[in-house]
């Protein structure tokens, strides 16, 4: 009976489908480009102590504000220069990937779990459940997200945990809205009717039938959300609310670089370029994943 | 029929705003820091502290505080800012015009830029120039206002200092204004020198806010235009010998603009949210910049007033979009 229900969902066997999906992923240049860069960042974060030329916190006032290689007065040991305290910008950049990626992966996943759960409930049960959750989404979206995140972090106290909580609390609506609409559409599909006729419980239908069908969409949304999380963390660091100044972050480097931008523009430019490239990479990856995983777009 | 839809929308907007008020109030009541502690020196006596608590209503029970605040708002009294020692409504009225001028300028730039890019993109849709335009559009779409603002700071403010980096106008110009809409006022009173200075200060924050929105408009409108170019009425006009540009602007645009309009309205609310950090970066004296200071200073009455102001702006824009969509599309009337 169960096979019958899932057979209605797709004609291909699961393993055949998996091979198709993998091939589609590898043929999508955006997945290769964006994913490749993210992989590069993950490696940089994991191997930071091994590949950093210097200790990111080590100050050397004798070699303060050195320009990047290629400019007059540069030193070969500091490829993209030093800040006004003589700390190596490249090493700080490499260590900065740790906070950026931690926040990206954890916060985006939490927001996705929360938003998907509420979106599934609203979309499938409708009526009062949908009314309450939809109203909640509307209220949430009336808050300026940057202001709300600053407020939450100010309340909870600065730190990575606060930043992650703030992002999850704010950005669940991005998932809830899409999942709600998609669940409503799926709930009308034949395979759901079939599962209901067979006598599956509502939660079984939601988790085993509908959720797998909206998974490709979720993966794409999750990837986009990771890019957003990196930005929010940088904004909070920039305002001075993320982690302590002992931990190098891109946003913190940007804020500090802003103070000395006329003497040492590279301290500002390097983390900004990293932020720019990372957001773009997550965006491209998300876009590519949506194309590759959505069978309708593949055709 | 339209009247009942409007009433329903208004009712929902009121519920949303009330929800915003409750949530911001609850959030602020879990703040561990005592706002009074910040206002007084370490040597203050217990009497002094009790006096201040009473003056700001902090000695009342929780529900009463909410009731007092809410009834105050309904009477136009938003309380007194703890850090600035001034009436919150007065502060809002002083700063809101700056934010409105910035947001509306950004909307204007985004719509013009998006429209131009969509039309050019449609004309070039089968050429390498079109692909290049699409790629640039994708870039503007992916990168958020915060990053654009910082990039402008670096490139147009520091490396090639073309535009002023911070503030709303040159501080050496001390000109009296009757309203707080400085750009608008200097324009209607023909003080173009001052208007130019204000506009120059607005270039970078405006562009940072406008670019992502322009990219959204350009993409959606271009898709609609390209689809419209395949319609029969465009074909007929083409046979009549109209040039490609006339076809796009004169024929396709009229039919493609509707769906883009609704989307622009919704995206405009996101632009308002973006003013918070963009104003901060350029030290622009609007309500967004003030809101960050208010949070850092734990100024409860001011935070409450500002969040409510943002919520009201957001809900008003959404309401206006809903109404115009209903008004423009009679088929939606029954829904």
- Largest sheet properties of chain B: none
Assembly category: heterodimer
Q: Which whole number gives the mean pLDDT of chain A?
A: 84
Query: What's the CATH topology label of chain A?
Result: MetI-like fold
The gyration radius over C-alpha positions of chain B equals: 24 Å
Please name the CATH topology of the largest domain in chain B: MetI-like fold
What is the terminal-to-terminal distance of chain A?
30 Å
Report helical residue fraction of chain A: over 70%
Q: How many domain regions of chain B?
A: 2
CATH architecture of the largest domain in chain B: Orthogonal Bundle
Kindly report the average pLDDT value of chain B: 83
The most extensive interface, with participating residues per chain, is: A-B, 38 and 47 residues
- Please give the count of helices of chain A: 13
Summarize the main sheet of chain A: none
Counting DSSP E segments of at least 2 residues, the number of strands of chain A comes to 0
Q: Using the CA coordinates, give the radius of gyration of chain A.
A: 23 Å
Overall outline of chain A: elongated
> What is the first-to-last residue Cα distance of chain B?
10 Å
CATH H level of chain A: which superfamily? MetI-like
Q: Note the total helix count of chain B.
A: 13
Describe the structure.
The complex is a heterodimer of chains A (299) and B (335). With 299 residues, chain A is mostly helical. Chain A has one domain (80-298): MetI-like fold, CATH 1.10.3720.10. Helices cover 75% and strands 0% of the residues of chain A. Chain A contains 13 helices and no strands. Chain A has helices at residues 2-9, 14-26, 29-46, 48-51, 89-125, 127-141, 145-156, 160-187, 190-198, 202-239, 250-259, 265-293, 295-298. Chain B is mainly α and 335 residues long. In chain B, 75% of the residues lie in helices and 0% in strands. The interface between A and B is large, with 38 and 47 residues.
